[in-house]
Design brief:
- The protein is an alpha/beta fold.
- It has 23 helices and 21 strands.
- It has an eight-stranded mixed β-barrel with strand order 12-13-15-16-17-18-19-20, surrounded by four helices. A six-stranded mixed sheet has the order 6-8-9-7-10-11, sandwiched between helices.
- Helix 8 crosses helix 9, helix 9 packs across helix 10 and helix 14 runs parallel beside helix 16.
- The radius of gyration is 34 Å and the shape is elongated.
Length: 564
């Protein structure tokens, strides 16, 4: 690309004149040698050797049609069929009437009639052809993704809009394809390996759009967009496409997720189709039960509902529609369970929808960054509650969630310090829960952020341990103060031997790290007993108590204090 830009500045242009007549070569050379470096070939075969050797510095070929050994027509065909040589513009030299049309059909950029016109006209034709070819190459370089050869995102959407304008009545489906957990693949096997996978996926996508028509792009590091004529039977055809990709990859470690907006003629614009295809693709991002999803009316209603929740959030924060509930955690190491701490859990009491469960809005706010506002709100509420309990003589630490969005905020420690100072509490009273999967996003950056928090006196609990990805090497370097087991294992600990043994292994890992283990989601006496046998330290769940509003939690704390 830089070489082309340098040429456009006039730093270096080379022209090859191919003609078996020495006099003709000299005449043309004399016209051009004051502006260009001119080299010569007396026949097509010699010219072909020169072109192959000098392809990177040739700006133009002036080609006579009638020559011995390899004529101009044959050479032109060879150039236009070659993936590397077709970009070099060719001006045909001819005195034959009718040859111009055939030459242009074979890919010539222009023609010059013999006997030659005035030198100024020829120089203008040469300059014009070179400029057009270089502009075309620059556009081609800019519009394509350098790794996969597919369109880049901006050009893709521009061409897709043109396609829509030219084919008003054609139904077009939008498809978003994503490589699941691609950042982990890069981390485990290296960027070169990841790039090779993306190339293979790009090749499969290119093959599909060649077969079906349409366009394709690489829209981000590991995501692709396809805009194709309507697929009549997506539930049959998409699995075939996924199989084609998987065969090309020949790698069982890779999982593809595909979201589809199937055009039904409702005149939804192209960008919105891709937004909806992307929505369903994200919905199944970490699913292992399905690898593709089709956007439907139910999802459309959910999308409208989500948009309403986003729009209502500022008002909800201002009016304190979000209420913090508290679920107790009990230390079970002794003969009698002892209240150790509580976890702050947020509920949304919406004036129209009633109580909205966290799974409806937490992920939504994580996706668009609004979770930062909600988290700060919860931290403040929790810190204020710690202060109230402290004033009543109860030292009860509270666990609060710190989302992966918060972790990347460079002011995180300042915000938390400001909250605890404002409420007159100690940093060790506000326990910070960070999900295991957050550590795998950008392990070193998150570790650095967590180390700063611990230096400021905060305790860190790794939440949902076992649900994400943690290498043993990474676990040894993680700055944490407790491991909190993923509740999915606890639910089946009594019925599945595998999960029982896995929980035992995770508790052993915690012992090696010398940190306590917290099990959440405990609902039965049987679960409690098994966890105690395995060596679990702290229990949280409905067996002891459901999440309680602040006043009821205060009553429970006082009751536990009296019983002690």
């Amino acid at each position: 690309m830089q070489e082309l830009l340098d040429r456009k500045k006039g730093l270096h242009r080379t022209v090859l004149i191919v003609d078996d007549e020495a006099v003709e070569r000299e005449i043309l050379g004399a016209m051009l040698n004051d502006q260009y470096e001119v080299i010569f070939a007396a026949n097509g075969l010699t010219a072909l050797d020169i072109i192959k050797n000098e392809k990177n510095r040739l700006s133009l070929i002036l080609l006579d049609l009638h020559m011995p050994e390899l004529d101009g027509y044959s050479l032109l065909k060879i150039l236009r069929s070659n993936g590397e040589l077709w970009r070099i513009p060719v001006i045909v030299l001819t005195s034959e009437k009718g040859a111009e049309v055939k030459s242009l059909q074979l890919g010539a950029a222009d023609f010059i009639s013999k006997p030659y016109e005035a030198p100024d006209v020829i120089r203008a034709r040469v300059e014009h052809s070179i400029e057009l070819a270089e502009d075309k190459i620059i556009i081609l370089e800019m519009e394509r993704d350098g790794l996969t050869g597919l369109f880049n995102k901006d050009f893709f959407f521009e061409y897709a809009r043109r396609l829509d304008n030219q084919n008003n009545n054609m139904l077009m489906d939008a498809i978003v394809l994503d490589v699941n957990r691609f950042h982990i693949i890069n981390e485990l096997y290296g960027r070169a390996y990841g790039d090779s996978l993306l190339k293979k996926i790009g090749s499969s996508i290119h093959e599909l759009v060649c077969q079906t028509g349409g366009l394709a792009c690489r829209s981000s590091s590991n995501s692709f967009g396809l805009y194709v004529p309507h697929i009549e039977k997506p539930k049959e055809q998409i699995p075939q496409f996924i199989s084609m990709i998987e065969e090309n990859l020949d790698d069982r470690k890779i999982s593809i997720r595909i979201g589809i907006y199937s055009d039904d003629g409702s005149k939804v614009d192209m960008e919105q189709r891709f937004e909806r295809a992307g929505l369903v693709c994200r919905k199944i991002k970490n699913s292992y039960s399905t690898c593709f999803e089709i956007y439907n009316d139910e999802l459309h209603c959910k999308e409208l509902h989500s948009e309403r929740l986003i729009n209502d959030m500022d008002k909800a924060l201002a009016e304190k529609q979000f209420k913090v509930f508290y679920q107790p955690k009990y230390n079970i190491c002794g003969d009698k369970p002892v209240l150790k701490s509580v976890e702050a859990l947020v509920r949304w009491f919406h004036p129209e929808y009633g109580v909205i469960p966290p799974n409806e809005f937490i992920t939504l706010f994580e996706d668009n960054g609004l979770i930062r506002l909600l988290d700060v709100y919860v931290w403040n509420e929790a810190a204020n509650q710690i202060k109230q309990w402290k004033n009543e003589g109860f030292d009860i630490p509270v666990s609060v969630n710190v989302s992966r969005v918060d972790i990347f905020n460079p002011r995180l420690s300042e915000i938390l310090i400001d909250i605890i100072e404002k409420n007159g509490i100690e940093s060790k009273s506000l326990l910070l829960e960070i999900t295991e999967s957050a550590y795998s996003d950008n392990a070193q950056q998150i570790i650095n952020a967590v180390m700063i928090l611990r230096e400021r006196g905060f305790k860190i609990e790794m939440d949902d341990f076992g649900s994400g990805y943690s290498s043993l090497n990474m676990l040894c370097s993680l700055p944490i103060d407790a491991l909190k087991l993923d509740m999915e294992f606890i639910r089946t600990i009594c019925t599945k031997k595998k999960d029982y043994r896995l929980v035992g292994i995770m508790i052993e890992i915690a012992r090696l790290l010398e940190v306590p283990v917290i099990a959440e989601g405990v609902e039965t006496k049987e679960q409690l007993n098994l966890l105690k046998i395995l060596g679990c330290d702290i229990i949280q769940g409905y067996y002891f108590s459901k999440p309680l509003p602040a006043d009821e939690m205060t009553s429970l704390i006082k009751s536990e204090a009296r019983s002690d």
